[in-house]
Amino acid sequence: MQGVYLKFFMTELQKHNGELLYEWLLEQAKKMGIPGGSAFRAIAGYGRHRKIHEETFFELAGDVPIELSFYLNEMQAAQLLQLVKTEKLNLFYVKSQAEFCCNEE
Question: Does residue 76 carry a pLDDT above 80?
Fold first, then answer.
């Protein structure tokens, strides 16, 4: 199947309307009928603001990078990106063409 691989980048503690942003975005995608999404927690990283985000021994809750990934069709990708725009979320994302399938026996 042909589609889109859409990846959003944020930090673990980023919030939207009082909820963790990655959890909020996953829930919105689920409500939109997007078949699945995954959040991946990084060990460390930095972005456009050049600030290193990492978890250290002395921190109880780190603010590490989160990568939120979806495999979806073009229409779903457009709807999700429109939601991000409507909600005025300042998120970096990568959108690329993808071929994907599920080999069920």
Answer: yes
Domains and CATH numbers, the chain: 2-96 (3.30.70.120)
Task: Give the pair of three-digit tokens for residue 94.
Answer: 């990568």
d(CA 59, CA 71): 33
| 104: CB partners within 8 A, 6+ apart | none
Question: What are the pLDDT digits (tens) for 43-56?
Answer: 766 767 777 666 66
* List of residues 6+ apart from 7 with CB closer than 8 A: 67, 68, 69, 70, 93, 94, 95
pTM of the shown model: 0.82
